[in-house]
Write a structure and sequence with these properties.
The protein is an alpha/beta fold. It contains ten helices and 28 strands. The structure holds flavin-adenine dinucleotide.
Length: 456
């Protein structure tokens, strides 16, 4: 019997398992994960910390799903190596054989080290349910948190802490939030929102030393030589693909596992999908290495699963696309949204505008649209994604679309959409949709009731 093994019980792994079972009702499927929970909606973790949702709302699949689909689930098991010559994976307590293998191990937040941090493992970051529970517990005894970092996962942690009711001081090492995708004008809109919520931001500030008392965090000394007292310290660095266990395997890696568009590695029965991968076709030049990639992981899991059962499908989405919400502001970055080199032309129409927290821009290279950023209103994201994917010339873009995007006086709005609150997929809304109608998100399956806000 064909024996498919999947390492990682995140969105990429679970979508692959689902797809394999759909294509083949007889094969054996084993999912191995080192966390101890069934599949859950990771982007909802900040809400779990702040108590906006309870644990019940987090589950993407419950144990019945695995039983019903005859998927063997091995939780709390860490894979420590792969031996392709023997078709075996190595666990801490034994080996598992496979006929085809998917590596969907995602990434981990690596915290940078500061003097003092080695004294104690109390510094927090938010990646897993256990992290969320740990932070939630700490919040009960805390008045103030200090958080350092600059990309999305830092902002997610800050929001979670602030919504938990404690004071948050944000140390920003540079002068711009999430510089891989945001320019200064977009960053300014989000910074204003953070400040309105009471978050204090200290620009160009790093930690010089962590101050520990009685083996718990007591505060930090900043590079400005100021002592800031705090009971919670969040240090968030970029998400790094979990590939350490592959060093002896012969599976080719760079920053992630190298895969072709079929999600196949250099070994012909080993696939990889989700945050752990690096597509061989990724344009290296200016593409941001974004770590907000739920939908990408979801789609890659499906592609890998289909190919593992003998189908021939390819991943053909834009390499880097990222959608999320920060302080209630929708944000989508597609392709190269903040180029660091010259040679790009930026189209911003009426933006930035001092009175509104909406910002949109297109990035062109040799007249072709190679990137876009939409902040605060993402209605046109679907159409712009197609434009970028098709490498359309700017002059060939539908004028109505450009007018709606960039002309603030435009009242024409044939393009409707909003972000799914769970997985942040940009969902189109048809003209005849009414308040109270039900929409099912095709990415995460959540059923949503249409509200007036969604139709605006
Ligand atoms: C707080 C937070 C908020 C986020 N918000 C958004 C958002 O708004 N929008 C968005 O698009 N994305 C968001 N993301 C990112 C999104 O969750 C990830 O892109 C997505 O989960 C990647 O899925 P994956 O299946 O590739 O990896 P993961 O979800 O990381 O799953 C991989 C699994 O494999 C396990 N594993 C790793 N190594 C091993 C091993 N050696 N043996 C066994 N198991 C192993 C891991 O523990 C993990 O359970 C957010 C992430 C976080 C942490």
């Amino acid at each position: 019997m064909t024996n498919h093994v999947i390492i990682g019980n995140g969105v990429a792994g679970i979508k692959a398992a689902e797809t394999i079972r759909r294509n083949d009702s007889n094969c054996k499927i084993t999912v191995i994960g080192d966390e101890t929970y069934p599949f859950y909606y990771r982007p909802q973790l900040p809400k779990l910390v702040s108590g906006k949702i309870d644990e019940e709302k987090l589950w993407g699949k419950k144990s019945e799903f695995y039983e019903k689909n005859n998927i063997i689930l091995q939780l709390g098991k860490k894979v420590t190596g792969i031996i392709p010559d023997k078709n075996e994976i190595v666990l801490t307590d034994g080996v598992v054989r496979y006929s085809s293998l998917l590596i969907a191990t995602g990434g981990s937040i690596k915290s940078r080290k500061y003097p003092g941090s080695e004294l104690n493992g109390e510094v927090v970051a938010l990646k897993t349910i256990d992290d969320a529970k740990n932070i939630k517990e700490k919040v009960k005894h805390a008045k103030r948190a200090v958080v350092i970092g600059e990309d999305f996962l830092t902002l997610a942690l800050i929001e979670a802490l602030q919504n938990s009711g404690i004071e948050v001081i944000y140390l920003l090492p540079g002068d711009c939030l999430w510089p891989e995708i945001l320019d200064k004008d977009a960053s300014y809109i989000l910074e204003l929102k953070l400040k309105q919520k009471g978050i204090k931001i200290l620009h160009n500030t790093d930690i010089k030393e962590i101050v520990i008392k009685n083996r718990t965090v007591h505060g930090v000394i900043s590079t400005g030589e100021t002592f800031i007292e705090c009971q919670i310290l969040g240090v968030v660095d970029k998400l790094q693909p979990n590939i350490d266990f592959l060093s002896e395997s012969g599976i080719k890696t760079d920053t992630g596992i190298l895969v072709n568009n079929k999600m196949l590695t250099n070994i012909d029965n080993i696939y990889a999908a989700g945050d752990v991968t690096q597509l061989l076709t990724d344009p290296s030049e200016e593409s941001p290495k974004i770590n907000v990639r739920w939908l990408k992981a979801w789609r890659q899991g499906q592609i890998a699963g289909a190919n593992m059962t003998g189908k021939q499908t390819e991943y053909d989405d834009i390499a880097c696309i990222s959608s999320t919400q920060i302080c209630g502001i929708d944000l989508i970055s597609i392709g190269t949204s903040n180029p660091l080199n010259n040679g790009y032309k930026i189209i911003r129409g009426d933006y930035p505008h001092p009175e509104i927290d909406v910002y949109k821009k297109l990035v062109l290279k040799n007249d072709k649209v190679v990137g876009a950023l939409l902040v605060g209103n993402v209605l046109e994201a679907g159409e712009i994604t197609k434009v970028i994917k098709n490498r359309t010339n700017y002059s060939e873009i539908d004028e109505t679309l450009l007018k709606q995007m960039f002309d603030l006086n435009s009242r024409i709005s044939p393009f409707h959409g909003f972000l799914c609150p769970v997985c942040k997929l940009s969902l189109p809304i048809s003209q005849d949709t009414k308040v109270g109608d039900k929409i099912t998100c095709p990415a995460c399956g959540i059923e949503l009731t249409v509200t007036e806000r969604m139709l605006r």
